[in-house]
UniProtKB/TrEMBL annotation:
Keywords: 2Fe-2S, Disulfide bond, Electron transport, Iron, Iron-sulfur, Membrane, Metal-binding, Mitochondrion, Mitochondrion inner membrane, Respiratory chain, Transit peptide, Translocase, Transmembrane, Transmembrane helix, Transport. It catalyses: a quinol + 2 Fe(III)-[cytochrome c](out) = a quinone + 2 Fe(II)-[cytochrome c](out) + 2 H(+)(out). Its EC number is 7.1.1.8. GO terms for cellular component: mitochondrial inner membrane. It is a single-pass membrane protein. This is Cytochrome b-c1 complex subunit Rieske, mitochondrial. Residues 27-53 are annotated as: Disordered. PANTHER family: CYTOCHROME B-C1 COMPLEX SUBUNIT RIESKE, MITOCHONDRIAL. Its cofactor is [2Fe-2S] cluster. Belongs to the Rieske iron-sulfur protein family. Binds 1 [2Fe-2S] cluster per subunit. It is found in: Mitochondrion inner membrane.
């Protein structure tokens, strides 16, 4: 066992070191640099083991010399300008995309077909090609128009009056595709004086309405119009 005076000296030495140890611990847990004294250009490092103080760099030469309002104005100008440039870029991108996706001039030209009606005599059929399909154009006589109007619409498989199927009574315009399985019917044939499909025996009347046979619907009417110069525009 150590002699009593030697033990007392050891305790005294430990007590003398205690304040220094406590100070180090406090510094170690501090998370913000401690400014030294009243000099704000230096700070005490908060990290353990760094005992030297450091100087805060001088950024004053980077500071704006202008007023606060001037700086704000410059900021607004930059934000506005960049926003305008971004919007113009986005518009250009979308516009390019839409132009590329839209139909080209040759495709649009094929979408419509013009027919000179003066070249079709009364009582005659003409077949034109539109978008790869046949289109029947018949210049109907007054007797054919009367015949088409005298049909009892309620008795039809696909009830449609003749008025609903034409824009001008003398001109009947239809797709020449049988509504059964897509054959091309023959004109001026069949039991009803209209069109006859030889594939399975469908009969259409002078208004293109199905009257007999397996076809479920009347011949389809495409989009068309009459131009001022006496032409029919299909499409
Ligand atoms: S395709 Fe015309 S009747 Fe069958």
């Amino acid at each position: 066992m150590a002699p009593l005076p030697a033990l007392s000296r050891a305790v005294a030495r430990s007590a003398a070191r205690l304040p220094t140890t406590t100070t180090t611990a406090v510094r170690a847990v501090s998370s913000s640099p401690a400014l030294r004294g009243s000099d704000s250009s230096t700070y005490q490092s908060p990290f353990r083991g760094e005992s030297k103080s450091s100087r805060i760099p001088d950024f004053s030469k980077y500071m704006s010399k202008g007023s606060g309002a001037g700086n704000a104005l410059f900021g607004y100008f930059m934000v506005g300008t960049l926003g305008a440039i971004s919007a113009a870029g986005a518009k250009s991108t979308v516009q390019e995309f839409l132009v590329n996706m839209s139909a080209s001039a040759d495709v649009l030209a094929m979408a419509k077909v013009e027919v000179d009606l003066a070249s079709i005599p009364e009582g005659k059929n003409v077949i034109i090609k539109w978008r790869g399909k046949p289109v029947f154009i018949r210049h109907r006589t007054a007797a054919e128009i009367d015949e088409a109007n005298q049909v009892n619409v309620a008795s039809l498989r696909d009830p449609e009056s003749d008025e609903q199927r034409v824009k001008r009574p003398e001109w009947l315009v239809m797709l020449g595709v049988c509504t059964h399985l897509g054959c091309v019917p023959i004109g001026e044939a069949g039991d009803f004086g209209g069109w006859f499909c030889p594939c399975h025996g469908s009969h259409y009347d002078i208004s293109g309405r199905i009257r007999k046979g397996p076809a479920p619907l009347n011949l389809e009417i495409p989009a068309y119009d009459f131009s001022d110069d006496g032409k029919l525009v299909v499409g």
